[in-house]
Amino acid sequence: MHLLKTLLATAVVQQTVAIPINPEPSLLLRSFSLIERGDPPPQCADDAATEEQGCFTLQDASNKDVRFALAPGQSFDQGIGQGHFSKVAHCVLKDGQDIAVKRFLRAPENYREVNEKSFQFLKELEGNEHIVKAFARGIVQGKVALAMELAPDGDAESRKMQGEFKGKENEKKMKDVGNQILDALAHMHSKGIAHLDIQEGNVVFIKDTAKVIDFDYALKDTKYRNSVPGGDGGDAAPEAFRGDDSSDSEELELTWEWALNRQIDVYANDVWTTAMMFIRMTTGQGFPEPGHFPNSGSERMVEIVVTDDANKRVEEIKKEWPDFSQEFAELLGDILCEQDRRMSMREFKEGFQDVTIYKCSEE
Ligand SMILES: Nc1ncnc2c1ncn2[C@@H]1O[C@H](COP(=O)(O)OP(=O)(O)OP(=O)(O)O)[C@@H](O)[C@H]1O
Ligand SMILES: [Mg+2]
């Protein structure tokens, strides 16, 4: 079936099942809904209601208007999340379905194209349940905005800080969430799309289902770039490290020389940043300080990466993370290496599925 038709058909099915016939929906009926729907927002009851009256309008993939209001107690300034470039608010569609609306902070001319690209990528990736669904995009109160599936149960950063993935006792949880994230990323790469900004703040949850968000930096069918997000500070792969001119550290300068003028393979960089995020999640750590291991700008990390012999890399990795099993260290050994020999996201996904992260006490 044509994609648009499939979407329309799905929407129609959801409408029929989700909208209760009686005005006071019973709990039973609600629990049968494919999508939970609350009360339709009164601000949008009148089709002619304006933004001043609290009803906003974005456009879906076929440029049809999608109407929604802020959820009670929400504002575009005080919402459920914020990043460097945007704030995210909990909103409600005209039919009562909860959604999240990301609204960029700066003028539309800076972000219209970025937002359109993100929307189109998310539409293309819609078949994967671990990639957030996008519903509509356009302008809200003069700023570029994106309406998407609401993931109300926190992001991987806040969960990591609570120790949810930390240590052997949470290995099952880490494996489960890791598999979901890799499923999303391998799917993305199979469609030629690289994310470029994989980090804990860009993984959100609906109960324990992970959803990858924030495609603002994503690229399609582009293998090499001169710079990527996180490259300057050493949070991206070491080949992306561009140093910091203000630093007088000799160690940083050495790494900078090694990485300078390298073309960065954006897919291999995604594999690196995903592995480093997994390590932070299992160890419960924050991002390392610039220059300190396992930051990509640290001399120690470069020392591991440039080692040609895979067994030697594994030995070094085991020294740094002594709790990790031989098999997990081996998996990491094929990631914490030069980009040309780094495993693909598909191989990472397949390898992670059966791996035991921590060694047994006898090992
Ligand atoms: N669909 C969603 N459901 C729930 N929360 C969300 C959703 N999308 C984003 N958030 C929250 O809002 C935060 C900011 O969103 P996002 O990462 O898209 O913004 P950004 O400005 O591009 O961020 P960055 O600083 O990473 O560039 C996320 O870290 C997350 O906590
Ligand atoms: Mg983000």
Automatic annotation (TrEMBL):
ATP binds at residue 102. InterPro entries: Kinase-like_dom_sf, Prot_kinase_dom, Protein_kinase_ATP_BS. GO terms for molecular function: ATP binding; protein serine/threonine kinase activity. GO terms for biological process: mitotic DNA damage checkpoint signaling. The keyword Signal applies. Residues 1-18 form the signal peptide. Residues 74-357 form the Protein kinase domain. Pfam families: Pkinase. GO terms for cellular component: cytoplasm; nucleus. Keywords: ATP-binding, Kinase, Nucleotide-binding, Signal, Transferase. This is Kinase-like protein. It comes from Trematosphaeria pertusa.
